[in-house]
Amino acid sequence: MASLYSFSDNWQLMFLPVFLIVFWLLFVLKNLSSFRKEFQNMDRKERSKELGQLRINDLKKKYVSRSLIGLIVCIIIYIIINLAV
What we know:
Blueprint: H1 7-41, H2 44-48, H3 50-84
Helix pairs in contact: 1-3
């Protein structure tokens, strides 16, 4: 019940979503940087071949799934903290 708490008691929870969003965005940027490094390690001929395209698609799936898992973890942390308070 939010009405039972004053602003001074609950101000930390107001910044929790902002912190989690920033944390997730930094995690996504780190994943993009890692994807770019792996992509640049492949030479142009390898990227244009069918096997290279399959590897690129696997890399995309890997980093998108990591980002989604990070988002789910942030949401779970938010829910757990709100239930604990």
